[in-house]
Every structure is written in C-alpha cells, then in structure tokens.
Design brief:
Length: 507
C-alpha cells in the first residue's frame, strides 16, 4: 500500500503490562470484535511500579464497561471499600477532616446546602446548633463509624447519596485484568523492547523491536511503559512539562504492614513536615507510603517518619520511588498515545492516576481512528486530557497551599508560593461568599471542593445572600431532621468488616 493512502487501523500494540497497560488491553479488546487485533508486550524482568492502591468512584464506570461483577473483583484483588479520604494535619497541625465521596445535605429552593449550613452556623440558639458540615454527608458519617453498605437506587432515600470506591492490591488488579483481556483475545508477548522503528515518511512508529530481534509492527501504539515513556517520550521526543514548582514532592517510600485493627473504609493522608503519609487498608495488609520533597527532607528522615507512623509491623523493606509532577506536552503524537505514568504523573494525594488512565482510554475509544490519523481527533484528545490534568493539578495544589502551617521550610514554601491563576480565582470566590463553581467537565464535584476548602481554609467572610430568602427557624428544623436521618441511616449500616465477610472476603 502506498505510504500516502490512509491505512485502516487493524493492529494495536500496547507496550507495558502495568495497571495502565492491562486496563488499556481490557477495554480496547472490545475492538477485537471490529477486527482490530490487540497485542501487549511486557517485560517481567523490568516489572511494574507496584503501587497504586486507592481509587475514586469513577472506577465504577470502567468496571461496568468491562461487565465486571463487583464482589468477584473485590475478592480477586483483596479490596476494601473506600468512602473518602481523611486528611490529618493539613490546614493546621492536629486538625482533621474528611473528603468524602457523595453529597453534603440537599440544596433547598436553589440554595446550595453548604451555604445554608454556613449561615445557620453563625446564628445563636437552637437554629444555629448545626454541627460540622460532614455530619450532613452519609459517606463521611459512615466512614467515621467504620460502616459500609452499597447505595440505594431509590433517589428519594438518604442511602442514595452514598458514594464509594475501592482500595485494592495493584498487583492482583493487573492479574485480574490480564485474565479478562486474554479471554477476550488480547495476545501477550513477554520481552523487552530495545528499539523503536519510525517511518521515514511521516515519523509514525512502525514497529517495536524486542531483545532477540523479534519485530512487532502495528498501526496504533499505546505507550504504557511507565516513567520510562519509551515511545512517546524517548522515540517521539514529546517534551515533559514539569509542575514541580507547584508540587515539590518528588520521592516516595512505600511499605506494606500487618493489619492491627478493624478495616477502615477510608484512606488516611497525614501531613508531615515535608510531605505526607498514606494509609490504605486492604483485606490482607495495610498499604503505607511516605511522599516527600527531597529538597526539604533527606531519605533517612523520610524513612523514619514512615516507619514511626505504622500501626502494624512492616512486611519487608521500604521501596524507593522517584518522580516529577507534570505531564507530556501532548499525550497523543502521530500514531502513539501514552497512558499512565508514560504520559504524566500527579502524586496520589487524591488517588487520581488510575482515573486518568481510564479517562485516556475512554476518550481514545470515543475518538478511535479507524482509518489513518486525523489531526482533529488528536488535537481534541490532547486538549481534553491536558485540561483534566490541569484541573486535578489545581485541586492537589489547593491541599498544600490552603494552610496556616508555618512549622517547617516546606510548609512555608507551599503556603506562600505563587499558584496557577485558575486556582487563585477559585480560592478568592470561596473566601468572599463560599461560592464554588465547577469547571466544565471537571472531575471533582462541588462537594469535593467544598470539603477541602471548608476543611482547610479559614471561615469565609460571608455567605451567598440567596440564603436569606430561607427562614432561619425552619431551616434549622430541616437541618436537624436531615442530620438525624443521616446518623440513623449510618448506624443501621453493617460494619465494613462484616459487609466484606458477608459478600466478598478473599479466601
Ligand atoms: P508501570 O506499573 O511502571 O508499568 C510499566 C510497564 O511497562 C511494566 O509492565 C514494564 O515491565 C513495562 N516496560 C517498561 N519498559 C519496558 C521495555 N523496555 N520493554 C517491555 N516492557 C517494558 N494511582 C492511583 O490511582 N492510586 C494510588 O493510590 C496511587 N498511588 C501511587 C503511589 C506512588 C508513590 C506512585 C509513584 C504512583 C501511585 N499511583 C497511584 C499511580 C499508579 O501506580 C500508576 O498510575 C499505575 O500503576 C499505572 O502505572 P503504569 O502502568 O503506567 O506503569
């Protein structure tokens, strides 16, 4: 076929068998029905990054796309349920708040619930006795109580407002997706890619060459090679935009530990003096890690912080990981699309990396180039993914910047650094009248922004004047009733462990 005639896309080659590679293989294998062959190359010698255990609720969409039975998936990956993230010591040393999945209260006649809460909490007397904002979010109340059940389909019930995701074993998740993919026709090739051949005609990738000389050609290449970015970065030369000036953490230490107590249905993120620690409960162990900025803390101190913070015994030595926050300037270049760490990295503070893989896959499926490559599709893909990275970046920066901590050079840097204009506008809106306007297509809901802003920022100067259209006493009664219903609903839920025992405990 002449090089000028667009070729039908019949062969997709995925390089890398980490979470990104197998998620891509499982989802793209749906295309095999349309005559597209999917091949995945991975190297067991190189291995995978082996971390990435906490998710957000969007994973339900991915599971649905693959027709995954949730109990079987939880059992296979030794997962637990996640109702949110508890942030400890971020706004101030000693304080804590929950960023829960799900919604806070219920809007009343066009008035946002958190605005109502803000007004009532400034009033003396019974109508102002409204407690904390998270007492109006079922996911937060259930998380604090260590309870879990699945949400109700009936939108009229409080239980319909519950949101949840999972904590799982990343290695087992990869294995699970591999089984699904191989069943639907994906071919797996073991081998190390040692060279990438590019077409002299248009610079597209023509083939990857493995050690031993085997050549694997294709029309579309999906780079899931992890931080190495073998195809998009190395072969295609797409530059990396660093966001380290806003997100200075560039190292992590990770170690699993034994479980010592009941399984918590939430992730805990505890701020330290130069970064933070995660605690992720799985059925068979606890995942722990310490993310820190090497400009502000050395490795020995970081390891000491990590090990001192464990509530069980360490199961082995800590793994060392290095990274830089940022993203490739284009995630789709020529005939190469990068997913996962090969495309970019944002630290796991809000557990968004697996979501970004999923988002890349679903946009690739919706713009899939059946014949040749049109720049309109590539440009749209790049625009949407870039926007999503930037929106998540801003949300993560918020956690570092919205603080009064001045106990270390790290926090002094984060508190006083310049931040993107897209974020400073949002903070200003919150500070004056607690307004939160969600970005078009933004991943984080108003409730997420409200949780973090209310959890870390000082109280806003005022509230939305619309609230004053609602009578104070009546609003107080409504809120007391709602808080009571949420508390009773949470109390009636099974304990998280008991729910797992009943439905999805691994053998
Ligand atoms: P990898 O797992 O590194 O896989 C790369 C693959 O490419 C491997 O199979 C490797 O063998 C293969 N490969 C590389 N070079 C070659 C070659 N030359 N030839 C053949 N094969 C090759 N995400 C979340 O969503 N939640 C979290 O809680 C979370 N926590 C994290 C904590 C830390 C400290 C870090 C660093 C990341 C975390 N992530 C998290 C991100 C998450 O780990 C990754 O996004 C996810 O695992 C996807 O990784 P990957 O598949 O892109 O890369």
């Amino acid at each position: 076929m002449s090089a000028d005639v667009p070729r039908p896309i019949r062969k997709v080659v995925i390089v890398g068998g980490g979470t990104a590679g197998w998620m891509a293989a499982a989802a793209l294998s749906r295309l095999t029905a349309a005559g597209v062959a999917i091949t995945l190359v991975e190297s067991e010698d190189i291995g995978t990054i082996g971390v990435g255990e906490a998710t957000i609720p969007s994973l339900h969409d991915f599971n649905r796309l693959l027709g995954i039975d949730e109990d079987a998936f939880v059992r296979a990956t030794r997962a637990t349920f996640k109702l949110g993230i508890e942030f400890v010591g971020w706004g101030r040393i000693g304080d804590r708040y929950m960023h829960p999945f799900g919604t806070h209260g219920r809007d009343v006649e066009g008035v946002k619930f958190h605005q109502l809460w803000l007004r009532q909490s400034r009033i003396d007397g019974a109508a102002g006795d409204v407690g904390r904002l998270d007492e109006y979010c079922l996911s937060a109340v259930a998380a604090h109580a260590g309870r879990f059940t699945r949400p109700s389909d009936n939108p009229a019930t409080v239980l319909a407002s519950l949101g949840y995701a999972f904590h799982f074993d990343a290695g087992l998740y990869g294995r699970y997706l591999r089984q699904l993919s191989e069943r639907t026709g994906v071919t797996r090739i073991e081998g190390r890619v040692t060279a990438v051949e590019r077409s002299e005609h248009n610079g597209h990738i023509a083939a990857v060459v493995l050690d031993g000389g085997r050549r694997i050609d294709g029309e579309l290449f999906v780079d899931c090679s992890g931080f190495r970015s073998l195809l998009l970065g190395d072969a295609m030369g797409v530059a990396f935009d660093s966001w380290q000036h806003w997100l200075p953490c560039d190292r992590a230490l990770a170690v699993p530990s034994t479980s010592t107590a009941a399984l918590l249905p939430y992730t805990r993120a505890t701020a330290g003096t130069a970064g933070w620690r995660w605690r992720i409960p799985l059925q068979h162990r606890v995942g722990n890690g310490h993310v820190y900025a090497s400009a502000f803390q050395d490795e020995a101190q970081a390891e000491d912080d990590l090990l001192r913070g464990l509530d069980g015994a360490a199961l082995g030595d800590a793994r060392r990981l290095r990274f830089v926050a940022g993203v490739r300037q284009r995630l789709w270049e020529g005939n190469c699309v990068a997913l996962g760490l090969a495309g970019g990295f944002l630290e796991p503070l809000e557990s968004t990396s697996i979501h970004l893989v999923q988002s890349g896959i679903s946009r690739l499926l919706s713009l899939f180039p059946d014949t040749g490559f049109a720049s309109a599709e590539r440009d749209e893909y790049n625009r949407l993914l870039r926007l999503e990275y930037e929106q998540i970046r801003d949300f993560i920066i918020l956690h570092y910047h919205a603080t009064t901590r001045d106990d270390s050079p790290f926090w002094n840097h984060c508190r006083t650094m310049d931040i993107p204009a897209s974020l400073s506008g949002k903070i200003a809106l919150w500070r004056s009248r607690a307004r939160v306007i969600r970005d078009q297509g933004g991943l984080f809901t108003d409730d997420s922004w409200i949780a973090v802003l209310a959890g870390q920022e000082p109280a806003p100067t005022s509230y939305d004047p619309l609230v004053d259209t609602l009578p104070v006493e009546e609003a107080g009664r409504f809120m007391h009733h709602l808080r009571d219903m949420i508390a009773k609903t949470a109390a009636a839920m099974p304990r998280h462990d008991a729910f797992i025992d009943r439905h999805c405990r691994a053998d």
